[in-house]
Amino acid sequence: MNRRHFLELGAGVAAGLAAQGRNGGWKVGMCCWNMRDFEPSVFDTAAKIGLDGVQLGISNTDQETLKLRRPEVQREYIAAAKRAGVAIVGTACQFRRPLKSEPVAALVLHDWIEVTRSLGAKVILVPFFGKGNLVDVNVKEEFDRLVAVLRELGPRAEKAGVILGLENTLSAVDNRKILDAVGSPAVQVYYDVGNSTNNGHPVLEEIPALGKERICEFHIKDGRNLLGQGKIDMPAIAQAIRSIGYEKWLVLETSSPTDLVADTRTNLEYMRRVFTRS
């Protein structure tokens, strides 16, 4: 990392720290894919809405080039975040190849550790959906292969000050089996309250069972609905999150039924009322 990159990174981190007070003490971000913008301009939109940060992913057209690995591109995002006064929440290692079965995916995730560190972020969302879905941790070959990869990458993430957040459709019990087998504090659960609810998991029990030591971050959503208008008991979710002493990011992965800015402002106002820290 050269001096210019270091100074830009420091400014970006400072912007993120300054943003923390906007939403009643919570740091509230949003996924760039839900904002339909994968370019540095996404930070201007986030500032317009009133968000504290943006979780960066890659577009479908960037699945093979993964341009965020290039330092000059990273500098563009850091500078844009600084100008907007919005933090880079973290990254999502979205890639066409399943981590559980294809070695090249492990190499990409290895690169993504450095990408995330260089952007000044702390969490990489590691998704397990589609072809890479984790269905049954009792399939020994699949389980052993995944654990072996994460045992290699966990210490590297820990050294970089980065957490690998596993987002999947498994129960808290099954996720604990993976984390226990890996044995690295840098491998945790990225807990999505919408996905877990839709897969029939007892969310209000799972959040305390995993605790803040095992949950690196939360996705907040309720299907295609505005928050508070779907089937999820959001006030109870908020209480469960408060009960474990969680103090990090809450990231909206919400839809926009009518208008991105207006709908997200509505969701953000709901967050301020219902997810109050007091």
Could you give the distance between the termini? 40 Å
- CATH architecture group name: Alpha-Beta Barrel
Q: Main sheet, how many strands, which sense, barrel? A: 8 strands, parallel, barrel
Q: Indicate the proportion of strand residues.
A: 5-15%
Q: Treating each run of at least 4 consecutive H or I residues as one helix, how many helices?
A: 10
Helix content: 40-55%
CATH level-3 fold name? TIM Barrel
Mean pLDDT: 90
User: What is the count of structural domains?
Assistant: 1
- Helix-strand makeup class: alpha/beta
CATH class: Alpha Beta
Radius of gyration over all CA atoms, rounded? 18 Å
Helix-strand topology string: HEHEHEHEHEHEHHEHEH
Comma- or semicolon-separated keywords:
single chain, 278 residues, TIM Barrel, globular
Q: Brief description of this entry?
A:
The chain is an alpha/beta fold and 278 residues long.
Description:
This protein is of the alpha/beta class and 278 residues long. The chain has one domain (3-274): Divalent-metal-dependent TIM barrel enzymes (TIM Barrel, Alpha-Beta Barrel), CATH 3.20.20. It has helices at 3-19, 42-49, 71-84, 103-118, 140-160, 172-182, 193-198, 203-214, 234-243, 260-274; strands at residues 27-31, 53-56, 87-92, 123-127, 163-167, 187-192, 215-220, 249-252. The chain has an 8-stranded parallel barrel, surrounded by 8 helices. Helix 4 (103-118) runs parallel beside helix 5 (140-160) and helix 8 runs parallel beside helix 9. The radius of gyration is 18 Å and the shape is globular. It starts with a helix and ends with a helix. 43% of the residues are buried.
